[in-house]
Write a structure and sequence with these properties.
Helix content is about 65%, strand content about 5%. The protein is mainly alpha-helical. The chain starts with a helix and ends with a helix. About 15% of the residues have low confidence.
């Protein structure tokens, strides 16, 4: 084992930027790593909260409820409409063979046009969802995210 890690491996310091000894408690003498809830917060005006309390506070905030409301107002009707369109295609394809076999243009029949319409509406719905998110939710969600990160920065773990 010493051959792989080298003789001074136990004294080696981890310089990983994601490694935070004060948060994990590793690499510090006993008792020095304990993060307690009564440690002072980084911001004087902020009361110390645990991360769970902060996330619950954000979840109950009007801004979070507004982001969720905007999300539901788009997703629920869009998903219902797409599901109905898909089920209608399947039902008509299995019950109305004559209708689906009717030629539209050249070798294309109604079934092929409707099947291609399924692909088209999938891409259209994806584009509409991304556009709606960008215009109506992303900025508010990003602000919530930054606020939450600022509040948890000084929270006891």
């Amino acid at each position: 084992m010493e051959k792989e890690a080298g003789p001074g491996a136990s004294a080696m310091r981890l310089d990983d930027p994601w490694y935070e000894p004060s948060a994990t408690g590793w690499g510090e003498p006993d008792g020095a790593s304990a993060v307690t809830a009564d440690m002072p917060c980084r911001q004087a005006e902020q009361r110390c909260h645990s991360a769970a309390e902060i996330y619950l506070e954000v979840q109950n905030s009007p801004a979070f409820r507004e982001v969720r409301r905007r999300y539901r107002r788009f997703v629920v009707p869009a998903a219902a409409a797409f599901l109905l369109w898909y089920l209608a295609y399947v039902v008509v394809a299995t019950t109305a063979h004559d209708l689906m076999a009717r030629p539209v243009v050249g070798a294309f029949n109604v079934a092929m046009v409707a099947g291609l319409g399924q692909f088209f509406t999938t891409f259209l719905l994806t584009w509409a969802y991304a556009r709606h998110a960008r215009l109506h939710r992303d900025r508010a969600a990003l602000e919530l995210r930054w606020d939450t990160q600022e509040m948890t920065r000084g929270a006891g773990r």
